[in-house]
Batch of 2 targets.
Target 1
Amino acid sequence: MDLSPIWLTLKLAGITTLLLLLVGLPFAWWLSRGRSFIKLIIEAIITMPLVLPPSVLGFYLLLAFSPQHGLGKWLHDTFDVQLVFSFPGLILASVIYSMPFMVGPVKSALQQLPASLAEASYTLGKTEWQTFRYVLLPNIKPSLLTAAVLTFAHTLGEFGVVLMIGGNIPGVTRVASIAVYDSVEKMDYASANNYSLILFSITFILVMAVFIFNKYQAKGPLA
Amino acid sequence: MIKVDIEIKLKTYHDRQLLKIKKQFTTGSITKILGPSGSGKTTLLKMIAGLASPKNGTIVVDGITWFDAERKINLSPQKRHTGFVFQSYALFPNMTVQQHLEYGTTDADWIKRLVKLGQLDKFIDHKPDHLSGGQQQRLAILRALAIKPKLLLMDEPFSALDSKMKTKLIAELKPLIKQLGITTIIVSHNLQELELFEGEVMDFEGLS
């Protein structure tokens, strides 16, 4: 059995989660602070992948990343970067596709913290960044973990967007979900079953781990 | 000297009420603000601390303008350096007693003194979840004092303490406030609670 689709999937999910932790957290923080029409529009755009058919998102990303048009052309001409049918393209698409799974829970958790926590920190002379880093972030640990695991698990299961952007290039863009589809197409149900079982097991363990962790958090003291 | 001359927009159940406050607080003095819930006491403290903005007016502290609506001056809470004791305590659930104080100051001796003042020596490694209501309230006061503020704003700071602890804490707090020359404004809806503090009383009831 060729395990490269599994490793590629785990690599994609890991990098996507890491990037979304770096980008999504400050973004969620910004969205959680106050309201404005611009924030409303941006939040709606971020949420779109939750409701939009993945093929639709994949199609527009395919157009955007195409070396013949706009952003894709600029990236290709300026930096010699090709996003379509490449692993970096998959990463970028996954970051966009999984963004709501990171930003949503973190934003909600930050909004549920009493405003007085941040206010107390400000009166102690701490900047907004210090307050975010030392007060707000440690107090939303369960939500942070849930968001990270959901993002990771969601990326594991990506199919439509990955197929549109990456295609099915072994070792480059052929992730596990594509390998399942490809195996079924070839009537190789044994391979399809193996890939599916591995994906199922990993996802189940991750979700169980989150449940157990959150249960402990709810019972025990805030760590 | 703290000069407050502001207009506060208060949200009430039915409408919005405009509250005008003109008051001077002498440096090192203690002022007790009394009034029913929803009369704007907490809002006034937050506006002085820079956590909320008045609709109009000015706040001038020792000749420095902290807030001026017309000149669009509004100093951040970080620059105002006020000790603030929140009614809800606003303790950080992730920090121990020691970490709360270290978050406000790096002065180890000062931290030791504060811990002793609040009688929290035995609970130094405890997080708020493992402190009683009274201990949490004491920690909130100690944390506000950690930055050695020139202005201490306390919102119902003794409501969770039993009378014995309250008497003891206030007895030790008073000389400390005097020694540091801290101008103190205490908000309460209970005059009896503030009897142990000598100072001017400002009644919010009927203010408009």
Note: The mean pLDDT of chain A is 90.
Target 2
Amino acid sequence: MTRSTKRAVRDGALAVFWLWFGARLLNDWFGGVFVAAGEPFFDPQPVADASTALREAVAGTGVLGEPVGWVANGLGSLSFAMTYLPDLAAGAWLTVVLTIFATIFGLVLAVPLAAARVYGRVTHWVALAFIELIRGTPLLAQLFVLYYALPLSRWFAAVPYLGSGIVPEQAVWVAVVGFTINSAAYQAEYIRGSIEGIDPGQLVAARSIGLSRVQGIRYVVMPQALRFAIPSWTNELVYLTKYSSLAAFITVGELFHAARAAAYANYRFLDLFLLAAVVYLALVLSATTVMEWVRGRVAIPGVGGSGDGRMSAD
Amino acid sequence: MAENRLLDVVDVHQSYGEERVLEGISFEMDRQDVKVLVGPSGSGKSTMLRCINRLTDIDEGEIALDGESIYDMNQNDLRRQVGMVFQDFNLFAHLTALENVTLGLKRVRDMSEPDAVEKAARQLESVGLREQANSYPAELSGGQKQRVGIARALAMDPKLMLFDEPTSALDPELIGEVLEVMRDLAEEGMTMLVVTHEMGFARQAATDVLFLEDGELVEQGPPDQLFEAPEQDRTRDFLGRLTSLHGDQ
């Protein structure tokens, strides 16, 4: 497959996913625009019936009936997905919220952390201590401390509008705080690596025209370092999309939590987790697609690669 | 002190840890002087330049710009007044040629965007790069990059320009265009301290040539005197070798 075909297949699949996801969220938030909130868009029963009918039709035909059996199984899976995807959509929305907020807030913290780690004197040790503490302890433990040991959710409960509307739980914001702190530490390390890859002559030149150290970092080093950090930043987004499932353990009803809750009702754990995995895949592919676009948008000749994922010969 | 005096370097000592780089250098520059520093690699030429705009600190001695010790001046203010051109150009890689020049104008000299752009465009034109204003460094030849580097330093209206081997990283066919810009600058009366191996430039444009070896100023004088009748054997040996290598351009 050529590059453009691969891209078309991916973009097509993502378009279908987001069309469904967007319609689903709209429908459920506004109390049933197309169908009743939480109900499948199309009735899965006929599909399930067709599957059963096919299976019965070829029952006892042995090897000859096998291919028809596969079709019947496929239809069975389809009706299963149609039945339970609405349950997962609300969870996937929280996964998106957690990932996007944590990545952006994390970046905002990571930039000064990375600068402090590379250029700071006293702040170097503060940044280093923070980064090593966060990277060295389990994310789940950090979430437990935030949720069970600190009164964060009580504080958030006092904030008007927070925990209402389309983001229904305060626990989500506790999780955002946790993931932000965690992500900041990892992102700071990615950015530190990029900063260290920038020719020191760049800062010397900035200083030589009279820019202060902070100005040199702000206007010369960071714009280049952040561009070089985009590939690792994409990686962070991918990790975070999946790590956000840990929020389930502090009661956040994100994608994994939603799949597990549905499975408690029918004991089809494997089927539901596989279905959730497909949704995760769609989210991760969306994230990498968006980052590829961002990378192309901010690309500058000679800074941070050409944006097509291959090294130039230069 | 003479009215015309711009730079005094008095008995400067400098070392990196145990390694002594400069061991008592003294010289002075009047306005419009063009002095060329020559010497074998490791003789301390580049370090001498970096001491003057405090990219490197000295251990002993005194450096004064316009009669004021550079250690009494605000560091960023000093650097605004002393332009520096680097061997490796060090253009800001993420900015166009024009933006390389405007950054200092906007952030150091607090000029408005339109004023900065106008001044930068004029500065680029003066080094023959009007067409390349919107090119990124990766899209420029070495000679063009170095001319942007010169424009970037000049835009700050420095009193003194330091050149640290400005043509050493260039392909031979690109050296001429950079030297031409530097000769023009010298003719316009810019005070310049240049570390270079280009003896042709030294002969034509320099008011004095300073020969450094092992952190000491061995000899200085007008280029004719130094090239034709040096007082020291060391100077004769070195300049002889250099001229046979780099010739006159």
Note: Chain B has one domain: 5-246.
